[in-house]
Amino acid sequence: MIDFARVQKELQECSRDIESSGIKVSPKSDSLARLTGTIPGPIGTPYEGGTFQIDITLPVMGKFEWELKDGYPFEPPKMQFATKVWHPNISSQSGAICLDILKDQWSPALTLKTALLSVQALLSAPEPDDPQDAVVAQQYLRDYQTFVGTARYWTETFAKPSSLGVEEKVSKLVEMGFPEVLVRSTLESAGGDENLALEKLCSG
Amino acid sequence: MATPLLQLLSSSPFPRTGFRGPFGFGGARVLCKFFAHGACFKGEHCEFSHDWKDPPNNICTYYQKGVCSYGSRCRYEHVKPSRTESTASSSSTIPSRTVSKSVTTVPAVPHELSALSRPFILPSKPVWSLESGKYDPLEDSDVIEPRNVKPADRSICAFAAAGSCPRGDKCPHIHGDLCPSCGKHCLHPFRPEESEEHLKTCEKKQKQLELLKYSQEIECSVCLDRVLSKPSAAERKFGLMSECDHPFCISCIRNWRSSSPTSGMDLNTSLRACPICRKLSYFVIPSVIWYSSQEEKQEIVENYKAKLRSIDCKHFDFGNGNCPFGTSCFYKHAYRDGRLEEVVLRHLGAEDGHTAVRFSRKIANKMKCACDLFQSRCEILLFQTQTPVVVRIACWIDTQSWEAERQAWCFVVSCML
Fold it and tell me: Which domains can be identified in chain A, with CATH numbers?
């Protein structure tokens, strides 16, 4: 079983020093077993300025009943990038993270916050020799400049929902030929995501 | 003034079987209750024993008289007065009665019977029952302590010990010195041994209290709770790691160590390691208190091991079973006739730099499987001769140093776990 008392404490602790760490953890629904973590892209990397969302699922028990495993914190939390990111150790398709502390090096003394900090550290220190996404890793090793460019572009596109002002987005979409009122309401429902709004507008 | 009380005492409707007096069965003295709590003002004049070896009287007198309002929650033993006991105690009751009679017939006695010049003749009667009835220490200020009594024999003032004595300098009793630990004026200035003992016990208690206070603040980094604030008593225990000093709840750390490893998780590098510093510990010891120094830790560990050594191992089962921990087991491995299990021959063939260990067949097989993984450092040769299989560990380490041997042993232990 998940130790919910501990999860509760971790959330409180995390919200207390949100200013200094910039790391946010919040429950997705009423259940504390599914959470969303938010980490800022580390400064001095192509991910700078981006805000990355990570889906966290706390394991309840082992795969089989006979395993009799205890859930979190005796099992590592399952983490996956919800925001698309271009990184050798993170799948560009699924967002799966290749990090030892989320697998065999997990320790119950680690918390969601420390795990997210490790993920943040992974962003600034990629390990191309132990890749999750082979394409990205190959690009990182062979053509570093292109890698940096792609990573920065992905950050700009996917990790910055409010990179442009609302007015700019509206005028951009209006230029494409959509009525302004519809553009505004669609943008709002899409949470300010320009691409999502465009998709919605196109699909009618 | 004293007569009605004494008469009441001697003609009490209850047979005075519950109160056993300072002498228990067979003339053995009963431990003084006040001495046991650290402060008996009567010192060596006390009728009760001040020797820790003597047994305390734990029998509830109220129950013996018929009713104890505490019922099953009473801290004293509820024993029905038996015939043998009443005859045994009657021997101590009779002389006290004859004394009471002599007191009632001599009218001049009450003054001399005060606590100060107490003629030590009432061995079975509590002195305070006499005193309180006929003598109020505050009213009767003309009583003077006889000067011929040595200062060491004079008792110390209970009022001063408790805080302040209303009689101040006029008090016939000795005002004790201040005990720095408990803050009471209860050290007899002329009885150095007694004060020293009080100081010692007081200091020990104080230290324990401080340690407990310190322990109460400690959090377990697995459940993030204070260990000593857990809901159930069984959980309010620390788990001491043998190799490092990070505190955990015993339940949390045991849970972690016993959880089955997920794919790729290594037993020794992750599960048996400290969750904080990842240092490998071979055992965890429960303790109700945390330690502040290595000596204290050692003491806790030794006490725990000593306790387990006195309990028979259920796996060993007096030689009928196989204990998976072998000779490293903390529990007692003894046969039915009291003979202890043979000690392992650690240096069987030590001249060639090898260490040989005796294990059960089950463990030996387990080790044989494990040694394939460990080929680079050790090689294990199995000689399946008789039932304890002799396992030879050949260390591929050049020097037969203690460190090399320790590593070999660590490996052996890890195979057994």
Answer: 4-124 (3.10.110.10), 134-203 (no CATH)
Position with higher pLDDT, A76 vs B369:
A76
Please provide the average confidence, as pLDDT, over all residues in chain A: 86
User: Which one-letter DSSP state was computed for residue B412?
Assistant: H
Confidence band for A29, pLDDT divided at 50, 70 and 90 = confident
Q: In what order do the strands lie in the sheet with B378-383?
A: B354-359, B389-395, B378-383
Put simply, whether B232 touches A (Cβ < 8 Å) is: no
- One-letter amino acid at A182 equals L
ipTM: 0.73
Chain A CB within 8 Å of residue B278 CB: yes
Q: Which of A98, A117, A182, A196 is catalytic?
A: A98
Is B299 part of the contact surface with chain A (CB cutoff 8 Å)?
Answer: no
User: What local confidence, expressed as pLDDT, does residue B282 receive?
Assistant: 83
Q: Report whether the peptide linkage leading into residue B261 is cis, meaning its omega lies within 30 degrees of zero.
A: no
CA–CA gap between residue B120 and residue B87 (Å, rounded): 24
Instruction: Determine whether A98 is an active site residue.
Output: yes
Q: A83: closest CA among A58, A120, A33, A115?
A: A120
Q: Which one of A11-20, A76-85, B267-276, B343-352 scores highest in mean pLDDT?
A: A76-85
B385 has pLDDT over 90? no
